[in-house]
Design goal:
Layout lengths: L6 H11 L2 H17 L7 H21 L5 H23 L3 H26 L7 H28 L4 E3 L7 H12 L7 E3 L2 H39 L1
Antiparallel strand pairs: 1-2
């Protein structure tokens, strides 16, 4: 029996992993991370467990987005694997050093997956709903990445922020602060106090505005270019 995979089958597998359903799952898990988990009122150890489960799904679906592009897929898999292992190891055996490494690799994996998504969003081809979903996912990843940055700074310097709501104890607390900063809401209940946290806050506010402006300009330019090419071919 011939066990070789035909080119058509390989193409079908790649299309399956890069399908809209996979991207929709990835975006759904990000929405859970950003909007659902912070709203759940459960014990600390439970919210950490739920966060790890959702984060594992985010990593798996995020890495799978690059399946059809071997270099991007390999890069994402190499970074995501230790991030996943460290995250669960820090949950099983909680030590400050292990948690710091887990957060650092989590930040790196989020940045790499955002890069993979941007490569897919801006690749040649028509502008469609899948690209828009990818762009929204990247915007949410920016907020998640900065949340890790604030959390790492807080672990190194516990006085990095001042909060009227009490001590920031979980990652979902940092998600709230990060997206308030990214969207430039700034309620004032959490204020950056250290030099690094202030620079992160400034960087995130600027990143959020620039990303939207550059994204819209780029997608419009790609749509105009594609329309011009279609007219020239006709």
């Amino acid at each position: 029996m011939n066990h070789r995979v035909t080119p058509k089958a390989r193409e079908l597998i790649a299309q399956t992993w890069q399908s809209q359903a996979n991207l929709a799952l990835f975006l759904a898990m990000l929405v859970v991370t950003v909007f659902v988990l912070p709203a759940i009122n459960v014990k600390h150890e439970h919210i950490v467990l739920y966060s790890n489960i959702v984060y594992s799904l985010v990593l798996a679906s995020g890495v799978a987005i690059g399946w059809g592009r071997p270099r991007l897929f390999a890069l994402a898999a190499v970074v995501a694997s230790p991030a996943l292992l460290l995250r669960w190891a820090a949950w099983a055996v909680s030590t400050p050093a292990l948690e710091l490494w887990a957060e650092a690799f989590s930040l790196l994996s989020v940045v790499v997956i955002a890069y993979v998504l941007l490569a897919q969003v801006f690749r040649a081809g028509p502008i469609n709903a899948v690209r828009v979903q990818g762009a929204v996912a990247v915007y949410l990843l920016i907020g998640v990445a900065y949340a890790y940055g604030f959390q790492i700074d807080s672990r190194i310097n516990p006085a990095s922020v001042e909060s009227t709501a009490g001590k920031m104890t979980t990652f979902v607390d940092w998600v709230y602060f990060s997206f308030c900063t990214l969207s430039t809401v700034g309620y004032g209940d959490i204020v950056p106090a250290s030099r690094l946290s202030r620079m992160l806050a400034i960087g995130e506010g600027i990143s959020g505005q620039l990303f939207l402006a550059i994204l819209i300009a780029r997608l419009v330019a790609m749509q105009v270019s594609a329309a011009a090419e279609r007219q020239a071919s006709n």
